[in-house]
Write a structure and sequence with these properties.
The complex is a heterodimer of chains A (294) and B (454). Chain A is mostly helical and 294 residues long. Helix content of chain A is 65%, strand content 2%. The chains are: A mainly alpha (294), B alpha+beta (454). The interface between A and B is large, with 48 and 46 residues.
Chain lengths: 294, 454
């Protein structure tokens, strides 16, 4: 999926277009998660922008993943388009029917086949379809959903949190992680991070990327300050070791209520974008139907 | 929130952002909503707010406050830019009604029993949305048809918490209404929203208006049913009549009569009750032929002290009656509208302000038009005028801009013709002229009695 799919202004507006386009009108089935899943709730949570940013900040700390992005993606030429595409991918695999989710995953797999090279930092070869790298990206995303929701989102029980990690293995498998390898519980996810931590480092690419992500010149100028609040929240939600790697050990965690208020403003503006309210309502109707069927 | 975390000060902003979306809207409108009407209503019912948590999710995290800012901005400014209006409109659309069970729960909590037992009949489907609640029809046990306004549970606490975030409010107001004194607006916003959340106060206001206009030949204010009204529920007589849009299709003489009633209501309230219903919204009127108008919703009433009202009276006296520009200027300065000693000629001040008094500056029939209403709004917002740097709307008068921007817009849309000056002279306490129209004649008996009662 390329940037032209979501034409228009900056990150915010293209993200909204991606959302409107990714929530199906007439789905053939409930997709890989379904309206009763924790994943549907988690990905619609108010904390999602914090989760998304934390996820990218975390993912950048793996030098091979970072090298793959730096050497093969055009993201610096069109950051807003790249982010919108990533958002569309997550939303389509979450809320789309199975055919739409598979088609989106197949596109990503085809792109991944071409992403190979040597990491200038470690000198190690990499391939984007290497299951280890796919698991890293997946685990960082799932962990970020949990961390952002815990600090700034709705209440998710321990069972919900385990359920989310388990459900999301389906997303990992879609993009090519062999069945059984993605962490399937919160404990397994924590163990995975303990194991992978020695491989992580702040490469020049990661430092540069993090600077870009927290400044976010691709966002609409009028939203810059709101983004600063989101960035402060995302940084506070990172694991302590990740903040240490970035050199942000003293980041002060912003107040939950105040972050939620900023996220609420962002959400209100988002609802003003074409198709967003309707997309939300389509999802809400299905989630309610699933709830009352239980 | 510390200010550095969020210091949005880039002007109109969020607003420009939304503008870019507009053109694409039609193409993107999802199919689910192509079939409007009933299905849309069905969808709203499917999404009904079922719990206090649903209310908090929908109207918390600043969303309810944003709607209130939108309402406030619509009377301090020329409304909002269309894109901002769209954002706020969508926000309003995003609030579904309460489920019958949730509304019944509020009734039970407030009135001590489920609606079926409190009332002899209760319509579980709301007939109208209020900004922080909804309206149900019912019949009391003694047989009166009533409208019952039910507040969303938990909304008062939710909005109070969000209004505490002054740093964020400041940023939002700077985006929404960059031309205004933000500190005064925040005070105004908190005060007004606090009042609006307080149904006891709203009921008191409505009682006051209802008592004053009791017996008026053309003005009706539904009476409050005291024993069925609390801090979160207001029960009043059920009013009937044509909606504003329907009335616009009536003959011009009928529209003129309706306009005269609205005009008399506004200025009788201001000069005699010292109160102004700050929400001259077309949705708050119900019309019957013969100039009969029922006024609904007293959630946004501003009460004036004599010292607040006196400068306004002085301005009318000096400009429209006495023709004394220097005295007019002094009155403006006394009221705080104009900085004392501004290096602006008094003739310029008068030139600038005269438009606002155009409908009452001379006797004789005048037709209100949308063009006049727009000209007033444009003049009001003319920040390039030499006066702008020295002019200001003191907080007590902010709400009165609804006269310039709301009332004139409505009368203009009705294309109403009347001798507004003559009607004003009847109402102005410093003139108290005899009736100038048949409606004025009809009012005389009521007015004598109302005066005696006060």
């Amino acid at each position: 999926m390329t940037a032209e799919v979501f034409p228009g202004g900056g990150l915010f507006q293209r993200g909204a277009s991606a959302f409107a386009a990714s929530v199906p009108v007439d789905p053939a089935d409930d997709g890989f998660f379904g309206p009763g899943s924790v994943t549907w709730r988690m990905h619609a949570d108010l904390s999602a922008p914090v989760s998304g940013l934390r996820s990218l900040l975390l993912q950048a700390l793996h030098p091979l993943a970072m090298a793959g992005v730096d050497q093969h993606s055009q993201w610096r030429a069109d950051p807003a388009g790249r982010f919108a595409s990533t958002a569309a991918y997550v939303l389509t695999t979450t809320y789309g029917d199975r055919a739409a989710a598979r088609a989106a995953a197949d596109r990503v797999r085809r792109i991944h086949q071409r992403v190979r090279g040597t990491d200038p930092v470690t000198g190690r070869p990499y391939a984007a379809d290497d299951p280890d790298l796919l698991i890293w990206v997946h685990a960082a995303q799932v962990d970020s959903g949990l961390a952002a929701a815990e600090r700034y989102g709705a209440e998710f029980s321990d069972a919900d949190r385990d359920g989310y990690v388990a459900e999301m293995t389906a997303a990992a498998e879609l993009v090519g992680v062999p069945p059984g390898r993605a962490p399937a519980s919160v404990a397994a996810l924590d163990a995975y991070f303990d194991a992978v931590r020695p491989e992580l480092t702040l490469s020049p690419g990661a430092a540069d990327t993090a600077g870009y992500l927290t400044e976010m010149p691709a966002i609409e100028p009028e939203l810059t300050d709101i983004w600063q609040a989101v960035a402060a929240a995302a940084i506070a939600a990172l694991p302590g070791w990740a903040r240490d790697l970035y050199g942000w050990p003293d980041a002060v965690a912003p107040d939950r209520t105040e972050v939620r208020q900023v996220l609420g403003v962002l959400d209100a503006l988002y609802l003003g974008e074409p198709g967003v309210l309707e997309g939300r309502q389509r999802l809400a109707v299905r989630m309610r139907a699933a709830e009352s069927a239980r | 929130m510390s200010e550095p975390l969020l210091r949005v000060s880039r002007g109109l902003a969020a607003v420009r952002l939304a503008a870019r979306g507009g053109a694409r809207y039609a193409a993107n409108a999802p199919r689910l909503f192509a079939r409007a009407g009933e299905q849309r209503q069905q969808l709203r019912d499917d999404l009904a707010l079922r719990t206090a948590q649903d209310v908090a999710d929908t109207l918390g995290t600043m969303k309810g406050v944003l709607m209130k800012i939108g309402q406030l901005a619509s009377y301090v400014d020329d409304g909002l830019a269309p894109p901002a209006r769209r954002v706020l409109g969508r926000l309003q659309d995003s609030v579904p009604p309460m489920s019958p069970e949730l509304a019944a729960g509020v009734i039970a909590a407030e009135l001590g029993d489920v609606p079926e037992n409190v009332f002899s009949e209760w319509d579980p489907l709301p007939i109208a949305a209020a900004s922080i609640g909804q309206v149900h029809r019912a019949i009391t046990r003694d047989g009166r048809a009533v409208a019952v306004k039910v507040q969303y549970p938990g909304i008062a606490e939710t909005i109070a918490a969000d209004l505490g975030n002054v740093g964020l409010l400041r940023s939002l107001l700077r985006m929404a209404v960059p031309s205004q004194d933000v500190t005064e607006l925040i005070d105004e916003l908190r005060e007004r929203v606090g009042e609006e959340l307080d149904y006891l106060r709203e009921a008191d206001n409505q009682r006051q208006f209802a008592a004053y206009f009791d017996g008026h030949p053309t003005i009706t204010v539904p009476k409050i049913v005291d024993e069925l009204s609390t801090a979160r529920v207001i029960t009043s007589e059920l009013a009937t009549g044509a909606r504003y849009a329907e009335m616009l299709g009536w003959s011009q003489p009928e529209k003129d009569l309706a306009a005269e009633t609205i005009y008399r209501f506004t200025f009788r309230s201001l000069y005699e009750l010292h109160a102004f219903n700050g929400d001259p919204h077309p949705g708050n009127y119900l019309f019957e032929p013969g100039g009969q108008v029922t006024f609904l919703d007293f959630g946004l009433v501003k009460h004036f002290t004599p010292s607040e009202l006196d400068p306004l009276i002085e301005m009318i006296k000096t400009l429209c009656i006495g023709g004394d520009p220097e005295a007019f200027r002094r009155a403006m300065e006394d009221a705080g509208f104009l900085a004392p000693g501004a290096p602006i000629g008094t003739d310029q001040v008068v030139d600038h302000m005269a438009l606002f008094y155009d409908s009452i500056s001379t006797r004789g029939p005048k037709t209100m038009t949308s063009a006049y209403a727009s000209a007033v709004a444009r003049r009001y917002l003319d920040f390039k005028s030499p006066l702008a740097a020295y002019a200001k709307i003191p907080r007590s008068y902010v709400i009165l801009q609804r006269i310039n921007l709301g009332l004139f817009a409505i009368l203009g849309e009705m294309n109403a013709t009347a001798n507004w000056r003559a009607i004003s002279e009847e109402i102005w306490p410093f003139v108290a002229a005899p009736p100038s129209t048949p409606m004025g004649e009809a009012e005389a008996g009521w007015h004598a009695a109302a005066g005696a009662a006060r």
